[in-house]
């Protein structure tokens, strides 16, 4: 004759299984899978404000690949567009002035590629600024060179072949494009 497990043993096994199921629900089922995927996408999305050669889609795609999106023209208030001693674009704080540029949505791989290209943190620093984009204020990263490097004249080919075409490509305001083109007169 077969013996059945005691009722106490069955009760212990049942309680253990119930505790395992509860633990799995708490630890694995707490966050729906869709929320996990969305949160990882949001955390890898970075807004970046470009005002120099990175206005150009070709330049950005060559540096970052195709997993980036140009969101549109954006305006950085209380900064002035200048050039460093090498003739590259830079910006410096200046109350009442503004800089037009392009807002990009980039990922962390692109940020690392831009860090290398911009010489971060040795040549250019990286800051978070507030830009005006589509009637909203948004935070974006921007590369800014040390003020001790300011005061140079624009590099003619850099401005003519990279910055101005990028500004035109992304429909920055005509008055801003005219301002950029006026720098070409002082070559």
Give a verbal description of the structure:
The protein has a single domain, classed as Gamma-glutamyl cyclotransferase-like (Hypothetical upf0131 protein ytfp), CATH 3.10.490. Helices cover 41% and strands 31% of the residues. It is elongated. It is built from 6 helices and 5 strands, in the order ααβαββαββαα. It has helices at residues 7-28, 33-43, 57-64, 108-118, 156-169, 174-183; strands at residues 46-50, 69-83, 89-106, 124-133, 136-145. Strand 2 and strand 3 form a beta hairpin. Mean pLDDT is 85; it is low at 24-43. A 3-stranded antiparallel sheet has the order 1-3-2. The protein has 187 residues and is α+β, with helices and mostly antiparallel strands. The longest helix is centred in the N-terminal third of the chain and has 22 residues, at 7-28.
Categorize the overall geometry.
elongated
For the largest sheet, list the strands in their spatial order.
Answer: 1-3-2
Task: Report the span from N to C terminus.
Answer: 105 Å
* The CATH superfamily title: Gamma-glutamyl cyclotransferase-like
Structural class: alpha+beta
Please identify, by name, the CATH architecture.
Roll
The parts where pLDDT drops under 50 for at least 5 residues are: 24-43
Identify the CATH class: Alpha Beta
User: How many strands, which pairing sense, and closed or not: the largest β-sheet?
Assistant: 3 strands, antiparallel
Element-by-element helix/strand order: HHEHEEHEEHH
| Count of individual domains | 1
What fraction, in percent, of the residue positions are helical? 40-55%
The overall pLDDT, averaged over residues, is 85
- Portion of residues in beta strands equals 25-35%
Number of strand segments: 5
Q: Output the radius of gyration.
A: 27 Å
- Fill in the CATH topology: Hypothetical upf0131 protein ytfp
